[in-house]
Design brief:
heterodimer, A: alpha/beta, eight-stranded mixed β-sheet, four-stranded antiparallel β-sheet, 10 helices, about 30% helix, B: alpha/beta, 13 helices, about 35% helix
């Protein structure tokens, strides 16, 4: 049952910025080891620019990694050539953040959802139509609207259309990149509940990328916290929020504005800003902002080590 | 108790039945449909709502910054410190804007002029509203930057906006807004463009400044969590109307309007154990095609016959707790 579907080992993506002789390198993803079990949701959280979207895209090989390995059910993804990869992509799809940008405005939604089915020859003629209808129904959109264009739908509806498109090829794995962050609060729940329902129905595995910790906690089985290209901490969702170990995770959790007006828990304020991924501090990349900095942290970089069970942290304090 | 304190307090801002239309090629939109809002001295009022509900438009109306055309205030009054801002001449309004009322915006990177040093931009704002020479203005700028927790202000004043992070830029905006000791600060989604940890820094700063420098504040946000941390009173907006307002604790503990209740349910709770999130069915209505009667009726779980016909008025349901819903008007 508990089979590993996705695994990355030492995944790195460095972008070179052209700047004459002293070309700099952006360490967008700087060595990520993670594994996602079949049927589970892995939440990847972090602040903007920490590399979480790049991780999602490199796993799908939409961006080619600089270093490292990606396994999909044991298949070495990087060993596939272009044609093989194209066929293999049936198994893995992506839902992007902004449904106003991810749907082609010149296509009817019938075509948006139907095209992948035709391209991969999963169905023909009338079958395509039936499949599109079924997909629209699955995401609670009236199939009678299938001849409409994306601009005729609201943000929440558009995101459901994007989800229907991702489901069109019966994938096993879907990368959800901030699927609710461009939506209004009152409709956010519609999408989250739909994703949970579809996951059960179609036995899907999710990589849920978000900067919103409370939403991630709600939907994920396991959560990884990223800080400038690396995982700072990883644990089951329950454990991570109950017993955070890394000082960054602690600060991140305490930073969420709470609507619980009775419990005013103390907020941990971090000094300074996220360092630039082109110019990383030596040692632990979090040390300039850390409230528990030790001399060791300035020299050596802590590794992501197992603390107990499924809980690992990259911090000398939890060694 | 809070109500008694408020009653004894002077009203600083009093918006009365404000109606604002936009005239576009597609037709007429009523962006504000009769807003009544009071803000007392030394109070922080949170104005909450989703995209397009009119919360930013309300703020811009107070500042008289609505582009006309296409916008036009067709009815209403905005009393500030006893004067109707809609009636005073533009020359006087310029002294109010940035002087008596200051505003900070959502996106600090677009609010600052990219070709001027940040110090010069603050000095300009100071000299516009206070009779200070260049040197004194500069000293005041450094002093303001210290107050907003800027490290090494003497160096910062010579920097350009692009050299600063989003959080630092927002600190510059706050310093600029507060440099003229305004009677009212309007903060329009001041932390929305920022990361969680930076947001925490800015919220902490605003809380700190509230103790002495910020006297009264109108905070506009879509995040009820931020309101819960900073405000004394909350007003909730939906499609151009204020549908509920009350003191902070009352609104969070016993919300009356079905929309407010739905909104509170839609926020994920950190202690929840279920993989399920509350939501409001349907979507926000198109302002061009608003439903008849109560504008929330198509999404409301308590829809009654009267809701389809008559728009509910904002009424005092319990002491100090106002709601616009037919459930309470019987």
């Amino acid at each position: 049952m508990n089979q590993i579907l996705i695994e990355t080992k030492g995944l790195k993506k460095h972008f070179a910025i052209e700047k004459g002789k002293n070309a700099a390198v952006v360490h967008a993803v700087d060595g990520i080891d993670l594994s996602i079990q079949n049927g589970e949701t892995f939440g990847l959280v972090g602040e903007s620019g920490c590399g979480k979207t790049t991780v999602g895209k490199t796993i799908l090989r939409l961006i080619e990694p600089t270093e490292g390995q990606i396994f999909f059910k044991g298949v070495i993804l990087l060993s596939l050539d272009k044609r093989e990869l194209r066929h293999f992509r049936i198994n893995m799809q992506m839902v992007h953040q902004d449904p106003f940008a991810s749907l082609n405005p010149a296509m009817t939604i019938k075509r948006i959802i139907g095209r992948p089915i035709e391209i991969h020859e999963m169905a023909k003629g009338k079958e395509v139509k039936e499949k599109v209808d079924a997909l629209l129904q699955a995401v609670n959109i009236d199939p009678g609207w299938k001849n409409r264009f994306p601009h005729e739908f609201s943000g929440g509806q558009r995101q459901r259309i994007a989800i229907a498109r991702a489901l069109a090829l019966n994938p096993k794995f879907i990368v959800l990149d901030e699927p609710t962050s461009s939506l209004d609060v009152s409709v956010q729940g519609q999408i989250i509940n739909l994703l949970v329902k579809l996951q059960k129905e179609f036995r899907l595995t999710f990589l849920f990328i978000s900067h919103n910790l409370s939403i991630t906690k709600l939907i994920s089985d396991k959560v990884g916290v990223m800080y400038v290209g690396k995982l700072a901490e990883m644990a089951t969702a329950e454990e991570l929020f109950k017993n955070p170990l890394h000082p960054y995770t602690k600060a991140l959790i305490s930073a969420i504005p709470s609507t619980d007006i009775d419990s005013k828990s103390r907020r941990i304020i971090l000094k300074g800003n996220v360092p630039s991924p082109t110019n990383l501090p030596p040692g632990c990349r979090f040390h300039p902002r850390c409230n528990y900095k030790m001399p060791l942290c300035e020299k050596e970089e802590p590794k992501l080590l197992k603390v107990n069970g499924e809980h690992s942290a990259a911090c000398f304090l939890s060694d | 108790m809070i109500r008694e304190i408020l009653q004894n307090q002077e009203i600083l801002l009093d918006i009365k039945n404000l109606i604002l239309n936009f005239y576009t090629n597609r037709g007429q939109i009523t962006a504000l449909d009769g807003i009544d809002l009071k803000l007392y001295k030394n109070e922080s009022l949170g104005l909450v709502g989703e995209t397009g509900c009119g919360k930013s438009i309300t703020a811009l109306s107070i500042m008289r910054l609505i582009p006309a055309p296409p916008g036009k205030i067709v009815q209403g009054e905005i009393f500030f410190d006893g004067k109707d801002l809609l009636k005073i001449p533009e020359t006087e309004m310029r002294r109010v804007r940035g002087g008596k009322i200051s505003m900070i915006f959502q996106e600090p990177s677009t609010s600052l002029n990219p070709v001027f040093k940040v110090g010069d931009q603050i000095i300009e704002a100071i000299q516009l509203h206070q009779k200070l020479g260049r040197e004194k203005g500069k000293r005041k700028t450094v002093e303001m930057l210290e107050k907003v927790g800027m490290p090494d202000p003497k160096d910062i004043i010579n920097r350009f906006p692009h050299e600063l992070s989003g959080g630092m830029q927002q600190r510059i905006m706050i310093a600029m807004a507060l440099s003229s000791n305004p009677k009212l600060l309007i903060a329009d989604e001041p932390t929305t463009a920022l990361d969680v940890t930076t947001q925490a820094q800015i919220l902490d700063l605003i809380k700190e400044l509230k103790k002495d420098i910020i006297s009264s504040m109108l905070l506009i946000t879509h995040d009820l969590g931020i309101v819960a941390e900073i405000c004394d009173r909350v007003a909730v907006m939906y499609t151009g109307n204020i549908i509920e307002h009350a003191e902070l604790k009352t609104l969070f503990k016993s919300p009356l309007h079905p929309y407010t209740r739905g909104l509170l349910d839609a926020i994920p709770k950190m202690n929840a154990h279920k993989k399920e999130l509350g939501f409001i069915p349907g979507t926000l209505p198109d302002l061009m095609k608003l439903p008849e009667g109560c504008k929330f009726n198509p999404r409301c779980p308590h829809q009654m016959e009267i809701c389809l016909k008559k728009k509910p008025e904002l009424e005092e349901v319990k002491e100090g707790h106002f709601a616009a819903c037919h459930l309470y008007s019987i």
